[in-house]
## 1
Amino acid sequence: MSSLAQTQPALAAASLPKATAEPAWVKWTLVTVALTFLTLFLVLPLSVVLYGAFELGVKVWWDAITEPDALAAIRLTLFVLVIVVPLNAIFGIAIAWAIAKFEFKGKTLLISIIDMPFAISPVVVGLIFVILFGSQGWLGPWLSAHDIKIVFAVPGIIIVILFGTLPFVARELIPLMQQQGKEEEEASLTLGASGWKTFWYVTLPNIKWGLIYGVVLCNARAMGEFGAVAIVSGRIRGETNTMPLHIEVLYNEYMFTAAFAVSSLLTGLALVTIVIKSWVEYKDERRHKTA
Amino acid sequence: MSISIEQVNKRFGNFVALDNVNLAIKTGELTALLGPSGSGKTTLLRIIAGLEQADSGIIRFNNEDITGQHVSERGVGFVFQHYALFKHMTVSENVAYGLTVKPKKFRPSKAEIAKKVNNLLELVQLGWTADRYPSQLSGGQRQRIALARALAVEPKMLLLDEPFGALDAKVRAELRRWLRRLHDEIHVTSVFVTHDQEEALEVADRIVVMNKGRIEQDGTPEQVYDNPANPFVYEFLGNVNLFHARVKQGQSSIGDLQVPSPEYTNSEEQDGLAYVRPHEIDVFNLPQPDAIKVKLDLVTIVGPAVRLEVLAESDQQLIHIEQPKEQFKQLNLKQGDTAWILPRYTKVFLGEGI
C-alpha cells in the first residue's frame, strides 16, 4: 500500500505536462516576441537617453543640469510634487473611504467620474483651465481684479497636474477598502476608540501598501506631465518651465546633449519610482501570503 | 446591565427590518435572538450596540436612555461573525487594543495592560498565541481571541453576531458549550444572534424567536420548544409534519384519528393544521386502533437514529419519522413494508397555518 502511494504521484507528474502544456515552440515564440518588443521600445530608447546624456563626458552632463534654467526647472518640478502628491493622497483616501464605507446617492456616478482625468487628453485639460482662469476666461476678470495669477504661473501648473493625477490613489484604494469592508473599524469603535484613532490604528495600516503604491504612481505621472502643463504654464524660462518642458525647449534649440542630460535625470527618477513600486508590490505579496 | 428596547422601528429602503419591536433583557441573562435570515435579528443586535441607528424607538441600558449615545461610549463588547480581528496586530495587541486607545487619563499602565491581556488569554485558553498574528490561527481560535478582546474593556454587556456561524460543525459545538460555561463564570449580560435552533436551545437562558422584523415568541428554551406560540415558531424549532385537521369543541380529527384540543373547546367546526414532530410518532408492525396505515418508502440510518419517510395509504401524504435505531430494529421492519403509526403528541393551530 505504501509503495503504491509513493509511485502513483510520480507517474502522474510525468504524464501531466503532456496533457496540459502547450508545445515548446509556442512558448519560445511568445518569449522571443516579448523580449524583442521590450528591447526595441524600452531598453534601446533608455540606453539612447543615457548615451546621449554622457556622450561628451560627465562634466558636460553636470554643467547641463546645474545651469540656472535647468535648476529652476528641477526645483519647480519638485515643488509641484511636494504639493500635488500629498493633496492627492488625502483626496484619494477621502473618496475611497466615502465610496467603500458609506451608501449615498450618486455613488456609481462618482466612481465613473473619477476616471475622467485619464480619459481626457492632457491638451484639453490645459485648455479647460485656460478657459476657466485665463485673462479672457470666465473667472479671468475677477482674478485679475484681485491680482491673482493662475494661468501662466505656478498655481496653474499645480492645478492641471493635480487634475491629471487625481485618480491614482483613489483607484488603488477603492477596491482595497471595499474588499476589507468595515468590520474592523466597527470592532475598533465598539472597543471605545474614537473615529480618529480608528482611522489611525486600524484603517491606515490596512491600506498602507495600496496607498504607497498609489502615491508612487501619482508621483511618476506628476513628474512627467507635459501636455496640460505646456498649455497653462506659458513656458517662461526659469519660472514656469517644469523638467519635461525644459527638455523640449533645449531640444528645440538643438542643445541635444543638455536635453538628454535633463532627460536622464527624469529617467533616473522614473527608474527609482519603478524600484520602489516593485518593492511595494513584493512586500504586499508577502503580506498576502502570510495572511 | 439590563437592556430595554421600546417600540424600535428600522427600515432599509422599502425593506422593513424591525417592525415595532419591544423587548426587555434582564441583567446577567444569556439571550438568543433566533430567526431566519432577514428576520431582523442582526439589525436589532447592531441597534443595541449603536452600530446602527433605529428610525424610531428607545434603547435603555439600566433604565437610562442611550438611544443617541455613540457606539464608542456605550461600553458594549461586540463579537462579529467573521471575527474582525485587526490583521496587522499580534494577538496580544488585538486584546490590548481597547485599553491602549483609552484617553491617557483612564489608560492603565503598560504593566497592567500586559497582565490583563495575559489573564484574558488564559481565560480563553490561548496564552501560547500571544505573539502570533490572527492569520496564523484557526477560525475557532480567532473567535476566542475576538471574545477576549471584547472582554478586555470590561463591557457592560456582550453582543455576539452569529459568533459560530463561520465555523465547522465540530468546532461550533465545542465552542458553544465553552461559551455557556464562560457565561456561567463571568455572568455578563449577553445577547447572541443565531439562525441555528439547536445552538439557541443548547446555549441560551432565554430565546427570542424573530420573523419578518417582529418577535414571534420570547421565553425559556423549554417554553419555546414545548409550547410554540404559533406555527412559525413550531416549524422553525425543528422538523415537523403537517396534517389537515377539523377542529370542533375541544376535539381535532386528523383522518380517523381523534386528538383532544382543549384550547379550542368553544370553537365552531373549522379547519386547522396539526403539527407533529418526527420523533413524536410511534411505529407499529401490527394494526392498532385509530393508527394510520403507511408504507415505509425510505429507511435511512443516521448514526444512532433511523429516519423514515413513510406514505399514508389513504392519501399518499409523506410523513417523516425519527426513531432510535435499537427501537426500530425490534420492529423487524424494512423498506417497502407496511406499518401503522400513531402521533404521541400533536399541536393544532386554527386556520390554514403559515
## 2
Amino acid sequence: MKLQTEVLVIGGGATGAGILRDLSLRGIPSLLIEKGDFLSGASGRNHGLFHSGGRYVVSDPEAARECIVENRILRKIAPHCIEETDGLFVSLPEDGLDFRNRFIQACEEAALPALLLLREEALSLEPGLNPDLLSAVKVPDGAIDPFELVLANAKDAEVYGAGYLLHAEITSLVVDGDRVKTVLAKDLLHGEEYLIEASYLINATGAWADQLLKLAGLHIAMALSKGSMLITNQRLTHRVINRCRPPSDGDIVVPNHTVSILGTTSVRLEDAENFEVTPREVSLLIQETSKMIPAIEETRFIRAYAGIRPLFQSGEKGDDRAISRGFVLIDHEKRDGIKNLITITGGKLVTYRLMAEKTSDLLCRKMGVDVSCTTHLKPLPGAEKPSGLKDRLKTLGKVETLCDCELVRREEVEEALREGKLKNLQDILHRTRLAKGTCQGGFCVYRLLGMLNEWELAEGDSNKILKGFLEERWKGIRPVLWESTVKEEELMEGIYKGIFNL
Amino acid sequence: MHYDLIIIGMGLSGLMAAKTAVEAGKKALIIGKGMGCLTLFSNTIDVFGKITETTRLRDDLSRWIYDHPEHPYGKVGVEKIEEALCSFNTFFRPPYTFQSRNETNSLIPTGIGTFRPTYLIPSTMMRGIALKEKKTLVIGFKGYKDFYSQRLADSFECRGTTLSLPESPSTEITATALARWMEQPSFREFIGTEVKKQIRDEELIGFPAVLGVNDPMGVRKDLEKKTGVSVFEIPVLPPSIPGMRIFNRFKERLIQRGVTFLMGYSVSKATLKDKRCEGIEILHPPVTTSYSADHYVLATGRFMGGGLKADREKISDPVFNLPVSQPGSQEKWFEKSFFDEHPIHRTGILTDSSLHPIDEKGELILENVRVAGTILSGHHFLEEKSREGIEIATGYWAAKQALN
C-alpha cells in the first residue's frame, strides 16, 4: 500500500504520541508508525513516577528544572493520568544529613517546593517508613499512568486529523542525495507492505534510535541502560518514597493505583530486544527498598519487569546514572546533511510534552511554518473524567466483571474493542486494566478469549494465543516466585496444565 | 483425646487414609484446614495419563514402576494401587460411579477445548469421550464467566449456545450456584425446555460440570428426559463440583462410620521425642487442644494446601519440619518456559518404602508417622497426570502400613 504524509513520526512511545498531537494541533498532517503497540518500549516499562525533579535536583539541575515546569503543566492538562500523592525524600542514619542539606538548597535554586519534615512528622504521614529515619523532605512528586497519558495523546491527535499505523516496522529508509525519499514498512501481523512518502521524518524510537538511523547509514552513540522493577501485591505507602542520597539502586517506591512499584537498577545492555530481570537485581531491590519500608521484606510480589532507558552517550564511562536524563534533539541536516530527518531521544516521561514541543518547533523552522505550540494549554481528552476506582466499586455486583482483581467490567472491554483497531491480545491488555492485578491475567485472559469467541472476534487459535500469553506472563512472575506466589502458580499450573491439559 | 490414627490433611489422600483406618476398625481423627485441592482440581481420577498406549494401564504402569522405584507408585506397587482404587470405588456405587474404559486411559473433552487423558471417569463425563464422533451441542450460561460454549464449539467443531437464565439475583453466576439450581425441578424444567428449542440434529449435549452436587445422575436423567438427547459434563475452571461430590461422599460416609472430623483447623504444634510424635496441638484462639495417637499420617498437600512452604531460601514442612528434598536455590526452582517441567515440583518429603519420613542419608526420622499424597517427593503429578492416583494409593497404603 502506498501512503503519503507531510510528517512521519516513528515510534509510539510518549514522545512519538506527544509529537503527533503537537503537530496535529498545529495543523501539520502527520502519520505515526510503531512496530508494536503504543508504549511497547520504555514508556510502558517505567515506575510511573510523576517527577517533581527532586530525583535529579542535585546531579542535574537543568533536567530538574524541566521536570518541575512540566509537572505543573501536566497537572492541568492531564489530571486524569496523575495521582497527586507528593513524595518524600527519606534520610536514613547511614545516609547522614550532608546530602539532604545540599538537596534542600538545590531545590530552592531550581524553584522546586520542598518542605523539611521531622522524623515524627514523616512517620505520622507514612507509618510504614523505617522508624529510625532521620528526616524527610516533601516534594510535589506523584504517580502517573503512562498508558492513559499516551493513549489520550494519540486519541486527540486522531481527532485533529493525524493517523497511526501500529504493528508496522520500518524495513528500509531510501536516501536520495540530502533527503530520505521513501520509507518501506511491513505490517508485522499480517505481512502487508507499505511504501510511505513523507516530506519530513521524526525519529522518536527511544532505545531503538540508533538502529533506525542505521537504515539511513547514520549513527549516534546511545547507552542502553536496563532498569528493573518489582510490583507488590498491595499499595505500601500513599506517597512516593525516595531515598535522600545520590541516585542508586533500589532507592524509590512509587504507589500506582492499588500496588507499589519498587525501583530501580541500572545495568548496561548491548541489545534492546532480549533482557530480563536477574535474581541478583530482585534481591538487591528488596534489600535496598526494605531499608526505607521494612515491610517489603515480607511483602508479596506479583511481577518483575525491566525497561530500557535510552541515554544519549556523552563519552565518559562509569555509572549510567551520571549521563544526563535531559533530552537530545538532533537536526540531521546540521549533523549529517540529511535535510528532512530529526532525532529526539533521552528525556523523561514527565518531559514528553516539552520534548514534543521542541521537536515540533524545530520542524516548523525547517518547514518555514510559523505556528506555535498549544499543548501546554489544551487539556487532553478524558481530563474531565473523575478517577476510576470509586466508580468501579459502585458497579460491583451490578455488572459483569471480567477481572476480579482490578474490577474490569465486561463493558469496558467491549468499549475498547469498539473504539478500535485492536489487532492482538496485548493491544486489549494495554487499554484496560486486565491482567494487571494479583493473578496477572491467570483468569481474566481465559475469560477475555472466551468472549472474543462469543463476539466472533477471535482471530486464530485461542489456545495458542492463551499459551503465548501464559509464557509472557511467566517472564514477569518467575523472578518473584516464593511464599504466596508459589501457591498462586500451583493454582495456575493446576488449571492450565492439569484440568485443561494445555 | 487419644486415637489409633490421626490424619493431618483433608484432601483425597487424607480422606483415603481415614477410610482405610475406619474400615480396619480403628479410631481415627482427621484434621484439615479446608477441603484440599480436591474441590479445585479433581474431576476424574488420573492415575497415569502420561502413558497413552492402548494396552491395559496396569501393565504399562508396572513396567514404568520397575524403572522408577523412587516414585510414590514404586513404593506402593501396582497391586496395592489397584487395591486402593477398588477401595475408593466402594464409596461410589451406581448410579454415580468412576470407571475406566477398557482398563486404559481415555481422552475426555475439557472446558478449554482440549482433550485430556484420564483413567477413572465419573458416569456424568463418560459420554464426552464420543464427542468427536457424535454431533454435539455445548451449553453455556449467560453470566457464568468461567465457561464459553462458543469457544468450545470452535475448538471441537460442534455447535455452542449460551442460555439466558430467568430472574438471576445477580448478573454473575458461579458454578456452585448453578449446581444448586440444577437440583431444583423447576430450574431443570426451564433448562430442558430452552435446550430443546436449540437442538437441531445433535445426539449429545455437553454441559459444564455443574449438574448438581448431591444427585448428578438424577439431574442428568431428568435433563435427558426433557431434551430427548444424551447429556454429559465437561470439567471447568475451579471450583470443581465433581470434586465436591467426592469430598461430600467421603465426609458423609466417614462420619457415619465414626471418624472424627475437625474441619477448619490446622496443627499449631507437634511434640516430637525419640523419633516419635507424642501429640499435636490445635490452637483455636483462645483455646489450645491436644490430641495424641499411636500413629500419624501427614497428608497436607503441596504449596496451596499448606503442606510445603517456600521462603526465599528453602522449602520446608511447617508441621513436623521433616527433611524436604531441595531443588537448589530459588532461581533454579522454575524453568524459563511456563510449560517446562519445573524442578520445584519434584521436591517433597523423602520417605522409605513404607512411607516413613527419612533424611537424605536414609535415616528414619519419625517411626510412628507416615507421609501420603502430593507432599511426597519424587513424582511430578502434573506431567504424569497422576494426581488422584498418587493421593488414593499413598493415602490407602500409609494407613494400611501404620495399622498393620
